[in-house]
Amino acid sequence: MSSEVGSAHISIFPVxxxxxxxxxxxxxSTGDEASNSxxxxxxxxxxxxxxxxxxQLKESFAASSKGFAGDALKVFTDDVKAATNELSKAxxxxxxxxxxxxxxxxxxxxxxxKSYEGSTVKEAYVAGADGAKKYKVVLVDKDQKEQTVVLxxxxxxxE
Length: 159
Fold this sequence. Notes:
By secondary structure, the chain is α+β, with helices and mostly antiparallel strands. It is 58% helix and 16% strand. It has a 3-stranded antiparallel beta sheet with strand order 1-2-3, with no helix packed on it. Strand 1 (120-129) and strand 2 (132-140) form a beta hairpin. The radius of gyration is 52 Å and the shape is rod-shaped.
């Protein structure tokens, strides 16, 4: 049997010199390993996924919109062709009219040179009635005297 002879208390104070730095070192090491492992597992995952998604979207859009614009663009293409033809006709008419004006100006100059030698044109007016044009011309001679003359399209004096 046993008997108790006495009791005592002993205080134990743990001493952990360097414990904190060793824990930090191990935690950092474990974190670095986990980070490197994660990086290598997901390396280029976003780029690969993005390229695949882009390619699939492009193919899907191309397939679903194939022929979509053809009918709509045909209307616009036809409108452009019609407008181009009208513009071409208008420019040809303009060129013809400009040619007629040059011819009329030459006839007028010839008529003035023959009948009113030495005179210059001060003013000129054009009037057209029933398809016939009349030219009212104000001339100034060498002495600065004005004279009004009315001519037809051939350059002949009519009044």
